[in-house]
Amino acid sequence: MSVESDEKVAIVGPNGAGKSTLLHLIAGFRMPFTGDVAVNGMTLNESNADGVRRKLGLLFQDPDDQIFMPTVEEDIAFGPRNLKLQDVGERTVKAMRSTGIEHLAKRRPHRLSFGMKKRVAIAGILAMDPEVLLLDEPTSGLDPRSRAGLISLLKGMKRTMLIATHDLDAAAEIADRVLVLNVSPVAQGTMSELVGSKGVLEQSGLEAPQISRLFDSICEMGYAVETIPVTKDQAVAELERIIERERRKRVASRVPE
């Protein structure tokens, strides 16, 4: 597989499919037994792993695994300070602003909600300005509002991303392309293409996004659906078309012969 600059790719699959392992291989935490991992044309090996990692930012599934400083501000500043980067203060403020946590600067991270901890962890990564974000289950464990806020945040970022997730609804909103993984790659394409290929997701123990399943039910009720949507915006557009077609039918049925 390959990922282009600024492309957002979701890696989906059942438990044990190798999603987290793939991210760890790309980050150089593990070395492949066979094959190669290359970042910006640089093939990863034991001797250059540290240099390659500086181009990457890995978000762990549990933010408590990477948040450890006394305050939010200090935690976000730790990475760029440890790497001896310039303008640590400016980087820290910018990262907090981009993730909407400026008001938490002096708070103790361990007292924050799970969702806010994830934002702090993401801000800590962004402060180092990596070329690629590797996100392991970024929406897991979040309440609905925190989940929606994080999806909006990631969707709005112009940055190369690989997102390992069970959350196909989030993947549909964020990702340009989806890779279905079940130890080996099963299929890849846009979420719309995978939903349209009946059985691809189900064979890997996955369910299509809720919006897609809803419109499958609408089709079964006899309404003509042009394209099964995978995102909220697509669903709104498709509903508008259905409503307009039904309105025209009712108007036509009232016209006397």
3D structure, described in words:
It is a single chain. The chain has about 260 residues and is α/β, with parallel strands linked by helices. The chain has two domains: about 10-200, Rossmann fold; about 210-255, no CATH class. The chain has eleven helices and eight strands. Helix 3 crosses helix 4, helix 3 (about 70-80) runs parallel beside helix 5 and helix 4 (about 90-100) packs across helix 5. The longest helix has 23 residues, at about 230-255. The protein starts with 7 loop residues before the first strand and ends with a helix. About 35% of the residues are buried. The mean pLDDT is about 90.
Topology:
Blueprint: E1 8-12, H1 19-26, E2 38-39, E3 42-43, H2 49-53, E4 56-59, H3 72-82, H4 88-98, H5 114-126, E5 132-136, H6 144-156, E6 160-165, H7 168-174, E7 177-182, E8 184-189, H8 191-196, H9 200-203, H10 210-220, H11 232-254
Parallel strand pairs: 1-6, 1-7, 4-5, 5-6
Antiparallel strand pairs: 2-3, 7-8
Helix pairs in contact: 3-4, 3-5, 4-5
Structure described in brief:
The protein is of the alpha/beta class and 257 residues long. The protein contains 11 helices and 8 strands. The mean pLDDT is 91.
